[in-house]
Structure formats: structure tokens, C-alpha cells
Amino acid sequence: GAGVSQSPSNKVTEKGKDVELRCDPISGHTALYWYRQRLGQGLEFLIYFQGNSAPDKSGLPSDRFSAERTGESVSTLTIQRTQQEDSAVYLCASSLGGRGITYEQYFGPGTRLTVT
Amino acid sequence: GENVEQHPSTLSVQEGDSAVIKCTYSDSASNYFPWYKQELGKRPQLIIDIRSNVGEKKDQRIAVTLNKTAKHFSLHITETQPEDSAVYFCAASKRGKLIFGQGTELSVKP
User: Fold this and answer.
1) B57 Cβ partners below 8 Å, 6+ apart?
2) Does the distance separating the beta carbons of A45 and B102 come in below 8 Å?
3) Which terminus, N or C, of chain A has the lesser number of Cβ atoms within 10 Å?
């Protein structure tokens, strides 16, 4: 079946502008995650949605970052007033879910964000 | 919070040799430990994972070992091939979110 999809694949924006990144998880996956990967580095956890529970926002680096999820489908990650240090690849992942249980996470292709 | 350290950062081996990558984690409550392979410009792909109730798991040329007491786990790749060249990431999790190590760039020379 279809995997995790993300859009856009690339985004170039000017410093100070807002950007919105989209993630479509695998159908039936109740858990959705956002990670950030700076060039040559590991993945940093940003936020985790599990069903109708309150999201785990513990990884969001500042209040300029926010994310929403509509039910158990699409999620959007919004970065306001972008800064050059926000330049990175933003990866979305989804999995089967259940609080306290970790299932295999399937990653999308990522959105490469460049802030000029 | 959880912290994951990964070593080495780069590893070069001859084709056919074995490669070992090691990770340590800080949160003793972590119970799931996946390994991902990421080729240049591509998304991470799960290659093997292990849960805290198991000490070792093997899948063909790949194996993972877990020492809960010492809080470390390792990836072993035997009979390496050039197509194994990639960046490998370990991760630890207890409630869904993955905390990743910094990655190991593996180069397999023919």
C-alpha cells in the first residue's frame, strides 16, 4: 500500500516568513511523529500524536513551532518567523500505536527546508 | 530525558569483514531499540529492532545485542558488502518517540 507522503519535497523561504509542511501517514496508523534532521546529523524528535490523546510536544525547540493533526490522518507542522537555523530536512513518520507500546515507525521522504 | 550516544561516527571496512556499531542509552525505562539505515538523500529504513525482553536478535547478516544492565546495545553486520555503505542510526524509545544517536557512516571498500 501507499507509504508516508510529505509535501512539499523542497521549500525555500526567506527569513521571517511562515512555512507549513504536510504529512500524510499510512492509512490505519494512529501514531504520527515529526523529526528534524540537520545536515550530517541525527534525527531530533519534535512532536508525537497518538490517536485522540494530547500530543507529546516535548521536542519542539521554540514556540515558533507548532503542529496539528486532523483525527488520525493528515498532520501539518508550522514554523513561524523562520530563522536560518531552521534549515533542515523535516521527516514525518507513522506507526501503529498504543500508549506505552512502540511499533515500527515508517518514515516519509522528508521536506527539505532552506531559509535564506 | 533520554540521551543516546553512538560510536564510532565513521567506520571503514573491507568487503567481507564485519562491522560493529555501539550505542549507549541513559533511561533505564527504555524498552525498544531500533536500528535504521539511511542512504544519501533517502529516508531512514528500519533494518532490525529489539525489545528489552530479548538479549539478541539476528536477521541474516545483521544482528543486534542488548545489555540492559549496562544500558548498551550493538549492531553487528557480517560479510559486509559495498551496498551496506550508508549512515546507520540507533535509537531508544519507551513511549513511542524515538531518541536517535548521532549516526555512524559506514564505508565498505570493495
Assistant:
1) B48, B49, B50, B63, B64
2) no
3) N
